[in-house]
UniProtKB/TrEMBL annotation:
It comes from Ehrlichia ruminantium. This is histidine kinase. InterPro entries: HATPase_C_sf, HATPase_dom, His_kinase_dom, Sensor_HK_Regulatory, Sig_transdc_His_kin-like_C. PANTHER family: SENSOR HISTIDINE KINASE RCSC, TWO-COMPONENT HISTIDINE KINASE. It comes from the Bacteria. Gene3D superfamilies: Histidine kinase-like ATPase, C-terminal domain. SMART domains: HATPase_c. It is an enzyme of class 2 (transferase). Keywords: Kinase, Phosphoprotein, Transferase, Two-component regulatory system.
């Protein structure tokens, strides 16, 4: 689903996944919805020949599953992060006119992540790109049960 969109935008799409299966307690439909939304945003705001990367890893020590969406896109100024994270929020600029959207994707994604006991973090730098980190807990009990 994302590959044709990235190809059309002439953006390189990469993924880094762990070699073994990662299991988390979450709503699979909502996780997919969040990842697709975040990848779509990254592709939309990344110029030609830029890169969007999906990284999934786990931290056994902290009992966390970490999903990162990293792009080399246009980025967001620190003072504008609150705008893009608010419902219907968009940064007023030539970019908001160039790239259509409702301003619901990021706040909805954040809320869905939080409803699944996850943490949503965003770091961005204008002209350098954005990193969105989703952190979810998992329990050793699941691991011991072979999940």
């Amino acid at each position: 689903m994302m590959i044709p969109r990235a190809e059309q935008a002439k953006v390189h799409l990469e993924k880094v996944l762990p070699s073994d299966k990662v299991v988390m307690v979450a709503d699979p439909k909502r996780i997919k919805q969040v990842i697709i939304n975040l990848l779509s945003n990254s592709i939309k705001f990344t110029p030609e020949n830029g890169t969007v990367k999906l990284v999934v890893r786990y931290n056994l020590e902290d009992k966390q599953i970490i999903i990162e969406i990293i792009d080399t896109g246009i980025g967001i100024a620190q003072q504008d992060l609150y705008k893009v994270m608010s419902v219907f929020g968009q940064v007023d600029s030539k970019h908001s006119r160039k790239y259509e959207g409702t301003g619901l994707g990021l706040p909805l994604s954040k809320k869905l992540v939080e409803l699944m006991n996850g943490i949503f973090k965003i770091k961005s730098e204008p002209n350098s790109g954005t990193v969105i980190t989703l952190t979810f807990p998992y329990t050793e009990d699941l691991q011991e049960q072979g999940f």
